[in-house]
Please model this.
Amino acid sequence: MPKSKTVLTRAQTTTERVRQMIVSGELQPGDRLQAQMLADRLGVSRTPVNDALAVLHKEGLLDYGVNRGYGVRRFDLCTLLDAFDVRLTLEGLACRLIAERGVRAETVAQLRSNLGRSEDLLFAPNWSSEKHARWRQLNLEFHDLLLEEANNSYLTSGVASARSLPPILDRTHGSDATDEIWPLLELKFSQDAWRDHVRIVEAIELGQGSRAENMMKEHVFSSREKARRIIQQLLPSG
Amino acid sequence: MPKSKTVLTRAQTTTERVRQMIVSGELQPGDRLQAQMLADRLGVSRTPVNDALAVLHKEGLLDYGVNRGYGVRRFDLCTLLDAFDVRLTLEGLACRLIAERGVRAETVAQLRSNLGRSEDLLFAPNWSSEKHARWRQLNLEFHDLLLEEANNSYLTSGVASARSLPPILDRTHGSDATDEIWPLLELKFSQDAWRDHVRIVEAIELGQGSRAENMMKEHVFSSREKARRIIQQLLPSG
DNA sequence: AACATTATCATTGCATGCAATCATATGCCT
DNA sequence: AGGCATATGATTGCATGCAATGATAATGTT
Model:
């Protein structure tokens, strides 16, 4: 028996495609999003496009004006830091809840598996940008495992909103001599993040709620400050 | 010059009307929401109704199934407590941010005004249900003032989602002899809440971030526990 | 009678037409 | 020429028709 044919409406697929166009940088902050143009480009009619844009607006990715349509939201540094503040708070809450109410053995196994695969990746020789991409995937998986285990839909959707942002910090970091040391700095940062992950899992297993919460908050906070430094370095004007 | 004629689309007004129908209890959890029926009832077409339902679904008020439409989400006790967990965490964050980065004098004045009006209401004789309604309004205003001052859109929308719920706890509390003492208990609870408000403003003015955060968390937590007690008393089965 | 299968119907998902509104360009007056 | 009013065009907001899908009732089979 076919379990359940995963059916998606055009509105849903359109939402994801437009979201990807934004977070990938294909659509840049400030760009207007005209319904007809997007519809032609995606091969659907204006109705699912409008539905998608409404959802993305509700998520905070788009600006909207009555009779003026949608545009990719302009993210200044403050907005980015705001998003991180909410993320670190909510993900911290997730860790506290998990630690206090107990974590399922299956989730522990998945977390341990994630930590193991990440360790193999991060502490092997020959660091590369492909490996960095794989680490980013593993990092996302780690955070998602915790969110799922927390099992709180308000928490999950709040983090999701605060997480989907235009790629202000994924841009190429200038073209001067710093290019050679950047990969190494990234590796160092990722290894630090992995150590955070290890200790967070440890605290959760021990039922240490506030320790797990605080460490997750600090963990995300370090990403926040890294993003801040990168942006302030790229745009000294503000 | 007319400042700016507040223009609202039918989709927006429909969203608010349907939301009110849900939080007021006119539409009960589990009810299906058929587009045509709602459209007739509200005097619009199905398009703005569908937009409204999509938004309310994104907010977490509605369930949705592809080709099956929307229905008012069933809120069990766990979901309600989840919403409170997010609220107390985010509103706590708001207080911390305000205290740490400093609060505008204008906002302080508005908060003080709110506290004054609430005091006049809560500590005067002849407590009544109309006065209770006015207190609820003042309480909402207090929390909104803080959210606005925090000036973080992710925070604001997260709290908004966690706040719009069906009226599980606004129901009439049974019909036995306890009816006579309920109002007095409500007054006592409201007075306690007001004292929390006073101390939160005090902490914010002194720049005591973590104290403000903790007190706000405890303040919302007491509402959470009150809701839990009421529901568990009403529905001993769960 | 119970179950599976088919047929009927209601409701959704989507496309599209039209009117209302906003943005831009043109003409007018001082 | 500069500022204001008007007109044109583009784009949105909304209504509605139609096909696809799910729910339900009717039918047939064992």
Q: What stands out?
A: The mean pLDDT of chain B is 90. The beta strands of chain B are 32-33, 62-65, 69-72. The first helix of chain B runs from residue 10 to 23.
